Amino acid sequence: MFYLFLAILCSASIALIFKYTENANTNRYVITSANYFIAFVTSFIMILYKRLFDGLIWEMPFIDDVKLFIENDQHILSPYSSVIWGIIIGGIAGVFFFLSFTYYQKSVRDNGVGISGTVAKLGILIPMIFSIIIWREFPTVIQWIGIVLSLVSILVINLSKKSIKTFDLKPTLLLLFIFGGMAEFSNKIYQKYALNDYKDVFLLSIFFVAFWISVTYTIKRKGKATLKDIFTGFAVGIPNLFSSYFLILSLDTLKTSVAFPIYSAGSIVLINIGGLLIYKEKIAPKNQLAIVMTIVALILINI
């Protein structure tokens, strides 16, 4: 739970940094590119610092190693195969990371912030459901109650009567749900089969691919880049990297169906508390209810 708390803290800080810039004339695409850049550079520095590739030997062909975990899902890939696995899964995840960001922007424009925020957060249902079906990670009865409470708190904090009345399941919402959920699920896919010692390779691959897609997209839009946008991106990139870093560590000891609802709901709670303490924003009554529900969910899940 300590690693999960650190992941939640990093996730919340991203939103609070964006909150600081929301009234400024900023280029979100430049910020996103700078965020991915600093994240993959930091991952690369961590790989060099830890000397991850020192003594790395080719024990068996990667395909043969993969066949072993297909036959036995308890099998963990060798160091060499973990590196290859991290590059492949990380590269695919990088595409999902960028697409989820892009479709969030589109969905906010088409559907409003409330519905978009809700659907983005509920994307955690994808890793939850897949983990239950594929790996039989069933929560206890009490944990189920906590999970349901955390999911309801997400709905309570994001939805309003107006957003519910105008709700319409548009393609942007469906794609946001899928891309966001698959981006989160990639963390579990890596952690389940590869050695966590090589998670920095996985994270490097994610943010390297996302950076190049993002910077290409930014150049095509011909947006103006300022030093403020770049430094804001750098400030976001570090917690963005470590939110995934600590989430992967937490999945070593927590069931996916437990970790993801708490990660999502906990982030929302900290964002609201941070908004109160830093930006002097009042917490709406329904958000106060959601915070209480999340705290109760945390207690139930840890019983």
UniProtKB/TrEMBL annotation:
<feature type="transmembrane region" description="Helical">
    <location>
        <begin position="83"/>
        <end position="101"/>
    </location>
</feature>
<protein>
    <submittedName>
        <fullName>Uncharacterized protein</fullName>
    </submittedName>
</protein>
<feature type="transmembrane region" description="Helical">
    <location>
        <begin position="113"/>
        <end position="135"/>
    </location>
</feature>
<feature type="transmembrane region" description="Helical">
    <location>
        <begin position="231"/>
        <end position="248"/>
    </location>
</feature>
<dbReference type="InterPro" id="IPR037185">
    <property type="entry name" value="EmrE-like"/>
</dbReference>
<feature type="transmembrane region" description="Helical">
    <location>
        <begin position="172"/>
        <end position="190"/>
    </location>
</feature>
<keyword id="KW-0472">Membrane</keyword>
<feature type="transmembrane region" description="Helical">
    <location>
        <begin position="260"/>
        <end position="279"/>
    </location>
</feature>
<feature type="transmembrane region" description="Helical">
    <location>
        <begin position="141"/>
        <end position="160"/>
    </location>
</feature>
<feature type="transmembrane region" description="Helical">
    <location>
        <begin position="29"/>
        <end position="49"/>
    </location>
</feature>
<feature type="transmembrane region" description="Helical">
    <location>
        <begin position="6"/>
        <end position="22"/>
    </location>
</feature>
<keyword id="KW-1133">Transmembrane helix</keyword>
<keyword id="KW-0812">Transmembrane</keyword>
<feature type="transmembrane region" description="Helical">
    <location>
        <begin position="202"/>
        <end position="219"/>
    </location>
</feature>
